What does this fold into?
Amino acid sequence: MSEENYSNAMRAEVLAQALPYIKEYHGKTIVVKYGGNAMISETLREQVMEDIVLLSKVGVRVILVHGGGPEITEMMTRLNKEAVFRDGLRVTDQETIDIVQMVLAGKINKSLVKLIELKGGKAIGLSGMDGSLIQAKIRDEKYGFVGDVTKINPDPILDLLDRGYIPVISTLGCDEKGNTYNINGDTAAGAIAGALNASRMIMMTDITGVMYDKDDPNSLIRELSVSEAIRMKEEGRIKGGMIPKILCCIEALNQGVDAVVIIDGRVPHAVLMEILTNEGAGTIIRKDS
It folds into this structure.
């Protein structure tokens, strides 16, 4: 068999194996929380957009929710504005929230929309302020314009999905007084997924998933229940930056999401591996049966 024929045969086999999963997710809603190295690397960024376009083309209703912390810090540096963090949160004064809005709702959001279009998809960019999509309140005055989600208005998202578009959402919120808030990306994605009763929320991170030993990549846990995740946190095996991600996952499940998956955004085509293969690409967390 020639190399070309072998390659074609392999492609056909991959498609055949993916068919049951395509059928399973056709018409279902998936929220992808996008950030980290997968956003910074241009090659990985293109591969993530290719994955999202492919899923959309086979009938999956995909919503892309993105952050942009490194880009915000970079822009602040260029504008001679010092980035200040407290308790892991960016302290956000009026000047900073203006920069956050410029970077998230402007530069990053529109560049992702353009890339999806270049890959053959249909996308429209939104911020959480559009149509009062993400309604929020101030978390604590010591953090400035950092907000907590109070309500999600799913109508703008549903309108776009029904028309065949991929909604690309930046995580800004607003209140009834017109104040703009910087919302944690994981929290916003979970709230959106819950409001839409999504089948999956995929959190792209800079680690393989949840591991028994954080220093051993071979100790990946493929599946966790909520009670198991809580027990690992109490035992100290889930700690540091993984704690708020796990809490966001549990909250999304409590709000109606069928399952949440933590995957390594540094792995090429990790989203497709998670949705269209049996093994998946990270750690899936489900409610207790």
